[in-house]
Amino acid sequence: QLQLVESGGGSVQPGGSLTLSCAASGFTLNTYPVGWFRQAPGKEREGISCITRAGSINVYLDSVKGRFTISRDNAKNTVTLQMNNLKPEDTATYYCATRSRSWLGCSGRQSEVDSWGQGTQVTVAS
111: Cβ–Cβ under 8 A, 6 or more apart, which residues? Predict the structure, then answer.
């Protein structure tokens, strides 16, 4: 498995913004597809968005379209999830993930992803 570390979570009021970052340990992140997932208490982990090795973007969650944006910073060896106009229903633990078999490309299904970060908590509340 590949090691990933998320950062940037926290508490924010509705309508606010947060930027999550996913960093790689010991490998070059832009040679792998990288996705963001989230899991709220009592719910299944769901795929949010993924960026391919070529930089193409897949968005799996309709509720975040127009609000969340995934991007790469190759100089920093990171993948970022910019989250704007946050809503209470966005409250969850957020994970970045990748597939060690990078040629398989992006997936929004947790069963098809084998390398995960430890997660970062995002809480949206008044």
Answer: none
DSSP code of residue 76: T
Say how far apart CA 61 and CA 41 lie, in whole Å.
Answer: 18
**52 φψ region: left (φ > 0), alpha (ψ -120 to 50), beta (else):** beta
Structure tokens at 102: 């990078």
Predicted confidence pLDDT, tens digits, the chain (126 residues): 799 999 999 999 999 999 999 999 889 999 999 999 999 999 999 999 999 999 999 999 999 999 999 999 999 999 999 999 999 999 999 999 999 999 999 999 999 999 999 999 999 999
For residue 98, give the nearest of 32, 21, 48 by alpha carbon.
Answer: 32
What would the DSSP string read from start to end of 20-69?
EEEEEESS-GGGS-EEEEEE-TTS--EEEEEE-TTS-EEE--GGGTTTEE
Q: Which residues, at least 6 apart from 75, have a Cβ–Cβ distance to it below 8 Å?
A: none
Do 25 and 4 form a contact (C-beta atoms < 8 A)? yes
